[in-house]
Amino acid sequence: MDNDKQIKTQAPKKDYLMPDDRGKLEPTPKVDDPDYKAAGKMKGFNTIVTGADSGIGRAVAIAYAKEGANVALVDLEDKEDAQTIKQEIEKLGVNALLYIGDVGDESFVKDTVKEIAKKWGQINVLVNNASEQHPQKSIMDITAAQLDRTFRTNIFGMFYWAREVFPHMTENGSIINSSSVTAYKGSPGLMDYAATKGAIISFTRSFSQNTEVLNKKVRVNAVAPGPIWTPLIPATIGSEYDEHGSVPMGRPGEPSELAPAYVYLATKDSSYATGQTIHINGGTIVNG
């Protein structure tokens, strides 16, 4: 598999804890469903997944690889998780690339997409999944630095990736953006995060209707997860698995339970869906 040098940028200075700094979760999140029946729906696809080292991104990358897709993995830091997911993808018999850097850094995005396009040519699927959140009980505690950091990762980065990848996308390609149930029901302790997730829905709907996008037959959709058992959990409503009884199903979702939706949106199965959002949230009704 491809072992060429990685494009790296310096990770942004952390003035507060990132979710991955909060320790390992117990039980371990399920990112690979052993019962998943792949059908080769993405054989030969070239895909990009941001925020790919853990949680939803890792589950999506594994599902794509099982379906036969090559996966370019993008993550903030070159930790063990980033290296192991690359190895897992390669063991599935497809090509894996790993790029380390800040998705909110425009130059990193430009350089990375240019390098991926040079290696693979056209790109079939982009998954904008990288995200961060920093709980604050009061708006008075949300500093300019935090606000900029949250929007830079969650929204600016999404724009950068979509803009740079689009010219390299195949006809009938797919862009999938990870939003959140907080975009619809709000979150008083995550005001800046929820605002970005709402912006993602508006961006998804708007970009999907762009004439240039429609002419190229590229579909743009979103997935809006509820509480999913990932490293973001300790930063939100609690670090204990059994604390998540607020949703109708009475438990958090597993990353592997979201992956099939990302496969659906990446393939011809969703050929008549664009500008839409799939809600995978344990039964919370949002009517959005």
UniProtKB/TrEMBL annotation:
Q: Name one Pfam family in it.
A: adh_short_C2
InterPro entries per UniProt: NAD(P)-bd_dom_sf, Sc_DH/Rdtase_CS, SDR_fam
Species for this entry: Marinilactibacillus piezotolerans
Specify the domain of life of the species encoding this protein. Bacteria
- UniProt xrefs under Gene3D superfamilies: NAD(P)-binding Rossmann-like Domain
PROSITE patterns, from UniProt?
Answer: ADH_SHORT
Q: What is this protein called?
A: NAD(P)-dependent dehydrogenase, short-chain alcohol dehydrogenase family
The UniProt family comment states: Belongs to the short-chain dehydrogenases/reductases (SDR) family.
